[in-house]
Design goal:
By secondary structure, the chain is an alpha/beta fold. The chain contains eight helices and 17 strands.
Length: 343
């Protein structure tokens, strides 16, 4: 049973796909899983449920996976909670991996708790980092070897917590898209394909997908090389036009903090941070953003950060490469003028 710790178990990634296309977070997790597995001296596995999705194995191999566990069933063409979760549960019980990683997508957040409950495993949500380390018990002084350190913001982002699971394996975590940088693919890599027969009972398919309606996001922040982001200090939806004008002049995209989204200044698709999108652009311009931890974890790895704020003590200046203390309604028009004159 999986309640026994399998130190030789593999590191697994749940290979979430939609309509035959892998989610980006899966390939990001494959790179980190490869690093964790190399430190543990074990293989990387990917669990791939779906219908006619065996062609996705090549992409998984190229991003560091050694073994793909394919559950191919026509009834799994579209995601429904119970059969997908049951397929993963059965494979965990069969192979006993020591680590299982999921994307913190709506699908991953649906499945991971169900699987953790069924396998009596620990689960940490929304991790921002994953590491392997020995851990010494403060009371008994006993050393637990090679545990997964599951690192995530806690208490509203006021602290960074490191969570471990010394018992009740596999150690499981969900990771938000964009937190782990995607490694460059190696097309020369190959791996093993295991075609698993799970014999899923008809009773698991009590929900049937009749039709699907998918709304595309308004902006692709992950692909933007330049982001002009606004916070609560922007003041209104009308004032956000300045940010769109600056982004247009620079050839970039507009982002926002949670305060701006909660204030109704802009839609959630534009949100950067712990509950939004994690970005790593070449240039990030933070306008009227105070710089709470929840926002910083989503943009602090940008190559260059410019902060504009009328409060010289705003936390955003602690991560900015360049800071401008002033009224954004005065500063941004000057920046737009300078960019247009240079162009």
């Amino acid at each position: 049973m999986t309640s026994e710790n399998n130190q030789n178990g593999e590191v697994w990634v749940f290979a979430e796909q939609d309509n035959g296309k892998l989610q980006d977070v899966v390939l990001e997790l494959c790179g980190r899983a490869r690093e964790l597995a190399d430190k543990l001296g074990v293989k990387v596995g990917a669990v791939l449920p779906g219908s006619k999705v065996d062609h996705l194995a090549a992409a998984l191999y190229s991003h560091g996976v050694d073994r793909v566990y394919l559950v191919d069933d026509p009834r799994l063409e579209f995601f429904t909670s119970l059969p997908y979760a049951e397929a993963v549960i059965r494979l965990i019980r069969k192979y006993a991996p020591q680590i299982v990683l999921y994307g913190a997508t709506p699908l991953g957040r649906d499945m991971a708790p169900r699987i953790a409950s069924a396998t009596r495993s620990g689960l940490t949500a929304d991790c921002t980092d994953l590491q392997i380390s020995d851990v010494t018990d403060a009371k008994t002084k006993e050393v637990a070897k090679d545990l997964l350190l599951q690192i995530r913001p806690a208490f509203g982002g006021n602290i960074i917590a490191t969570i471990i699971n010394p018992a009740g394996w596999p150690q499981m975590a969900t990771v938000r898209e964009g937190v782990m940088p995607m490694k460059e693919a190696d097309p020369s890599r190959s791996g093993e394909l295991f075609r698993e027969i799970c014999d899923l009972e008809d009773a698991l398919f009590g929900v049937k997908v009749i039709s699907r309606c998918k709304e595309e996001k308004k902006v692709n922040l992950k692909a933007a090389r330049i982001i002009v982001a606004g916070g609560g200090g922007v003041g209104s939806r009308e004032n956000f036009r300045l940010l769109f004008d600056l982004a247009g002049a620079l050839g970039g995209a507009v982002g926002a903090s949670r305060a701006a989204v909660d204030g109704g200044y802009i839609d959630h698709d534009y949100q950067v941070g712990q509950t939004g999108t994690t970005v790593r652009p070449a240039l990030y311009i933070a306008c009227g953003i105070s710089g709470a931890v929840q926002h910083r974890v989503g943009m602090q790895d940008s190559a260059k950060i410019i902060a504009i704020n009328n409060d010289p003590n705003a936390p955003i200046f602690s991560v900015a490469h360049y800071g401008i203390v002033g009224d954004l309604n005065e500063v941004i028009p000057m920046m737009i003028k300078a960019v247009k004159e240079r162009n």
